[in-house]
Specification:
single chain, alpha/beta, Rossmann fold, 7-stranded mixed sheet, globular
Amino acid sequence: MHLSDRAYSLVNRYLRRVGLGTNSGETRPWLGDLSQLSPDEKTKTPMHQALYQGRGVYKWRNYPDVYHRYLERFRGTKFRMLEIGVAEGGSLEVWRKYFGPEAIVFGIDINSACAKLDGVAGKVRIGSQDDAAFLHKVVAEMGGIDVVLDDGSHVADHQRASFNILFPLLNDHGVYLCEDTHTAYWRGWYAGGYKRKNNFLETVKGLVDDIHADFHNRRESMKDASRSIRGIHFYNSIVVIEKEVQPAPTHYQI
C-alpha cells in the first residue's frame, strides 16, 4: 500500500474517529517496526527477500506469503503483469527482482509525476483505473495480461470498475489480486461500510454465489463467472481470484 501525505491524513482522521488513530507527530499505529522481524521471516521466500530489500513500499505483513503462493509459478517466465498504483516505484522494483528480466511488467497511475519511473523497473502509463478506454489500450500494448494487482485508490467504485474491465481481459490461468480490501469497511473517501452494498468485498462475495450457479436459479452477477473462475481466496486485506475455464460440474461415485 502506498500512501501520500493526503491519503494518510484521511486514513488517520478516520482511525482517530474510531479510537485507533494517532495525533500529529506520532507513529502510524499500523506501521510496524522492521527491526522486530526475524531474519528468518525477512528471507522466508524469494518474495520476502525481494520485498524487504525494496524501497518506498508499504505492505501488510501477510502479503508476501499470499504473493508467493499464487505468483511463484510465474517466476523466470515471460508473463505479463499489470499493477494499478505506482507511487514511488518501489513495488515495480519488487516484481522485477522476484520475477526476473523476462517478465513484462506495467504499472499505471493517475499521478503524472510517476511518468519519470517509466523504464526503471517496468513500463509506466498515466491514466485512471476506472477508464475503460485507457485500460484496454494498456492491455493491448502489453499483448495481454496474466496477473493484475490492484493497489490503486482503494475506493470501492474504482476497485469494481477495474475488476469489471480487466478480469474479462485476463488470460486463462491468470490471477487477479486486490489489495487493502479492509477499506471496504470504511465510509467517506473509500465509499465503504460494513456489509454496504457495492463495496468491493460485497461484490466478490457475490461471485461466490456465481461460481455455484449450477446449483441455484439466481442470475449470475458477472457473466460466465461459473465457467471462468477457478477459485476465490479471501485473506486479511487482500482477495485473490483465479481465472481458468471451468467445465460443467460432474459428480462421480468412486
